[in-house]
Amino acid sequence: MARIYISLGTNISPEKHLKAGLVDLQQYFGPLQLSRVFESESVGFKGTNFLNMVAAADTDLSIAQVVTTFKQIEQDNGRIRGEKKFSPRSLDIDLLLYDDVICDIPVELPRGEILFNAFVLWPLAELVPNLPHPVTLQSYQTLWQNYDKQCQQLWPIAFEFPPELLPINTL
């Protein structure tokens, strides 16, 4: 069984899509461990603010099967393929880590944006502060402590998680 870490982000009906994405992830992967939800300014384009968070789950699926599942959940929540890279999203789900696997195919693992985007690193550092990044070997807490927090604006928000989620560990 592999431990996976998942980033979720949305800026189109964000509360609705984030809640729906969590419920769908639970249906495929079972109980989730969740970070707090953060609001952040859009990165790479001018747009409405995003809601972002990180979830952890366990799976017997392969990396490719996990990614396919994420794409299906995104599509079920109104994601349109072929959008510009930096544009509004109904739901964006990315595989950040699959145990400590390092690979480029079928996706880049660990996902590169962990080290560059506050909206991924801060929730991941809260969720698993002592886990080492598979490449840098630094803990996520250390990576977050050393991150230039002036380059991206991000703040935790109060968020009402869907009541149908199984008992979960949230921060």
Notes on the structure:
Strands 1, 2, 3, 4, 5, 6 and 7 form a seven-stranded mixed sheet that branches. 27% of the residues lie in helices and 22% in strands. α1 runs antiparallel to α2. The two termini are 24 Å apart. The model has no long low-confidence stretch (mean pLDDT 91). By secondary structure, it is an alpha+beta fold.
Features of the shown structure:
27% helix, single chain, 171 residues, alpha+beta, globular, 4 helices, seven-stranded mixed beta sheet
Let me know the number of strands.
7
* Order of helical and strand elements: EHEEEHEHHEE
**What spatial form do the alpha-carbon principal axes imply?**
globular
Rounded to the nearest angstrom, the distance between the terminal CA atoms is 24 Å
Proportion of residues in extended strands: 15-25%
Tell me the structural class.
alpha+beta
Mind sketching the topology for me?
Blueprint lengths: L1 E9 L3 H16 L3 E2 L2 E4 L9 E10 L3 H14 L15 E7 L19 H10 L12 H6 L8 E4 L11 E2 L1
Parallel strand pairs: 2-7
Antiparallel strand pairs: 1-4, 1-5, 2-4, 3-4, 3-6
Helix pairs in contact: 1-2
Summarize the structure.
Helix content is 27%, strand content 22%. It has four helices and seven strands; from the N terminus they run βαβββαβααββ.
